[in-house]
Design goal:
Length: 307
Amino acid sequence: MNYTLNQLQVFLKVVQCESVTKAAEELHLTQPAVSIQLRNFQDQFDVALTEVISRKIYITAFGREIAVAAEKIIQEVQAINYMTLEYKGRLTGRLKISSVSTGKYVMPFFLTDFIKDHSGIELSIDVTNKKKVIESLEKNEIDFALVSVLPSQMNIEKLDLLQNKLFLVGNSKTAIESGVKSQDAFQELPLIFREKGSATRQTMEGFLKNNNVAVQKKMELTSNEAVKQAIMAGLGYSIMPLIGIKNELSNNELRIIPMKGLPITTNWSLIWLKGKKHSPVSLAFLDHLKRTKNQIISQRFSWYEKY
């Protein structure tokens, strides 16, 4: 046997994703590169690790046993790396965060200096919709979650980072008049929604319900970027977080339509399970945020206060 750590990592990711294509995306490698590493790893065993049926890859029972062993080996190697750095007096370990999709415009700015100061930290951020974020939190798979709507019926603690503002947005050629009443506007307005499970959709639906607005025409898209492109193309309008449309507003590709009851304001909050036993890394990150969040907001989000 002469397999490498890289081959173990690639094989484990393929097992976790059950797809060479998805594994390549998560590893930031090309699909051929992953296929080659997988084949080289397989060549060292007389028993099949995977099999392909109708162009879909399946992991054999033997392959799953090897994956369990591979994960243990990788964890031990990481432990050795952490111990080496700790011996040198450096903060080490993993920081795992799950963020709702529009949180990608927020979270990096609160992480940058912390990661620069502690290069021994391994950072993992999963950007997905609110439903999956909360599932990861409930299973205690992550240290923190970034959300714009707090989950109900969960015992959590939180640290508010930044105000979240949602406006009605159209393209620069929109004919809707400023100050129009929501009940009137949405009768004929083609309204674009995010997918079910999205915090933005939840907030948007809450606004429509509270204002007794019935939407006649609507469309559903699965990402903030898709919604922006649809609006710019003239397909409709949407209630969107301000944080994700800075460039489009500056370039006059989108415009905010003033409407009674808007903007909706919530908070971007970092949350964690109440009573969670934080690692030294997550405790250090919380301390960093408490000390620097006002400075970060001033330096990175000063444009935000114009709206």
